[in-house]
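Example record for the data management plan.
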Amino acid sequence: MSKLDPISLRLFVHIVEQGSIAAAASREHIAASAVSRRISDLEDALKTQLLARTNKGVEATAAGIALANLARGVLHEIDEIYVQMREYASGVRGHVRVMANISAIIQFLPFEIRSFLSEHEQVQVHLQENISTNIIKAVAENAADIGIYTVVPHGQELETFPYHVDELVVITPEKHALAKRRSVSFRETLDFPYVGLHTGSAINFQLIRMAAEQEKSIRMAMQVTSFDALCVMVEAGLGIGILPREVARRFSKGVGIRVVSLDEPWARRQLKIGVRSFDALPVAAKLLVNHLKRPEQQ
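Corresponding structural encoding:
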């Protein structure tokens, strides 16, 4: 059990995440041979193989994946001890790791985090943007304390709380055939080329699924990685797009874009706050969840 030191656990997590002993060694400024020795000692201590060599590097065995998930939690607790003790001198007492999708970050989070920090000046909030599926996975694996995401099918068991509801709308170039419509059905939009978000985004997933239900497909002219890039492409006449109404309102100001309501029940999307276990959260994270969560939305 003496072999389960934090350095070996941290190195092991880096190896699993990067698929390479050399990359983990470089990141921690340790010789690759020393890292290999530590992993061998770890396997001896646990009496099980943790890594398997492949032609591309190394990958975790089933036991290795389980250890990596457990190690992330242990290392986070150790970091929490260090941070809290170190930061007592500067008055900071706690930090919260938040991962959220871009819809939540653009529409809701900035002012909500600002108001939270005005009430809890001794807390640090570390916010990272990601897609909903990755956020759910990160929370389940203890890589984030709190996740804020659009509800999508997933196999993880998280404790969830209601966040905001947003509404998807269609954006078109000024002179597009749909530009003067007040509302449009999703089926009607499928007659036109789309500018879509990147693969894996909740909106992209939803559109593909809804098109498949109608036995049609989306003509994706191109895919981009941000809402502002999507709006620029639509303004240039390269296709239509779908994004949250508040995002469309902000990005369409002063540019050649029209916003058209999407006449579909699924256009209203529920955003959720997800945690592994509320009771197990650090106090600062519990305070933030309570600050952000909303009454159940109808």
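Summary line stored alongside the record: The chain has three domains: 6-70, 85-164+270-292, 165-268.
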